[in-house]
Amino acid sequence: MSGTARHQSLNTPLLQINNLSKAYQGNRQVFADINFEVKAHEVICLLGASGCGKSSLLKALAGLHPVNGGEILFKGKPLHKPDASIGLVFQAPCLLPWLNVHQNTAFPLTLHRESKISQAEIQTQTDTVLQWVGLRDSADVYPDQLSGGMAQRVALARALVKSPDILLMDEPFSALDAITRLNMQQLLLKLIAHRRNAVLLVTHDIDEALILGDRIILMGDTPGRIVREWQITMPQPRAKHLHELIETRMAILEELSEVAGEHLLPNGAVV
Ligand SMILES: Nc1ncnc2c1ncn2[C@@H]1O[C@H](COP(=O)(O)OP(=O)(O)O)[C@@H](O)[C@H]1O
Ligand SMILES: [Mg+2]
Asked: Would you identify the CATH topology of the domain 12-85+165-271?
């Protein structure tokens, strides 16, 4: 590769979303003219009222749903189907009840036999990610014996097992209690700091976005579109210094109250 070509490839954003639009059947436009980029190692939080199209957008970016207009470039190439370098975590852990923690985590590695990954490699990669999420000692446990937080840690380990460049996360912590949610946010920050994944995380919680995001993107609805974005430059850890971001929080709340209207709760969460 020439020096210039290498320079260009290093500067290519991980994900480029250009004029993306989608309509479900019946021609109802769910989102339109979405433009943004995710750079390598960047953490972006996507905020918006329920129904504005956040999950639809994330599924499109995962290559799970077709779009009607625009394009998605992943590492500079058009993305039309799921890619092993894009990890996914949803609000529900969606574990397979007949597989234990180790088997659930290893599952993506066992799907494509043509990749010829050895049993020893599967074992090593699975052990490594279970160690990261603190579940190495629970490898033999089945999903019905896990707490909500543990199950979501398995879902996170499963998303990480193929060492993705980016994690797409759809309200991954919103079904958890407040303490578990804080613990999961800190675990995610630890993972990001050490494994250097980029993250695009949908949340309806402004504080979660402020704790995690390098950038916060606000979506409005009818159809879903990007309204505004904020760059958060305060270094990590932020959880104990959130009061220093009060002005940004107020600005986000104000903008949200305009786009979310009656959907807005007093604490800044949006339903
Ligand atoms: N598979 C689908 N088919 C048709 N309409 C859908 C489908 N999924 C979502 N929608 C509609 O698209 C809109 C946006 O939904 P969604 O992307 O789930 O929003 P959000 O995640 O922001 O709450 C909603 O009106 C929803 O009813
Ligand atoms: Mg959603």
From this structure: Rossmann fold (3.40.50)
